[in-house]
Task: structure prediction
Amino acid sequence: MTASVPASRRRRPSLTPRLLGAVAAAKAAQAASRLTGRGGGTSVPGMVARRIDSAVLRTVVARSDIRTVLVTGSNGKTTTVRFTAAALRGEGIRVTTNNAGANLVQGVTTLAVTSADLRGRLPSGILLAEVDEGALSTVAAEVDPAVVLITDLFRDQLDRYGELYAVAGALDRVAAALPA
Result:
């Protein structure tokens, strides 16, 4: 991870035809999804972008002067993200967030690529993303978060993730991989 190096001093990945295609295709997929009434365009664009460029999320975040905050847990993610976004905006900080709650890897990818310009750069400020606890390890590895906030862990997801302690262990491993 590169969190120990300030975002302003990191070497930025260059704009490649693959990245440009992934961002453009995601934006087109979002527009098509909304125009045809086939959904809000919150997951499919990320799936399309990742199909074209599997590193698109990592690259878009790395090309941007943005700090990333991830909110995860069993309950309260959406509310916590909304309150946090309102507080940050109240302080005059620009916030890019997934208000629709698409919180799996493809949803977070959609957030990044559809918020980015065609050169694959996000506006400066904070990228505040709600992330499903099962997707946190993948998302955190790709976005190099400055902050990971865990709301709680509850036994409501046993059918998807198994024992609560397995989920807690996965979250511990994400935390251990982050700089202090």
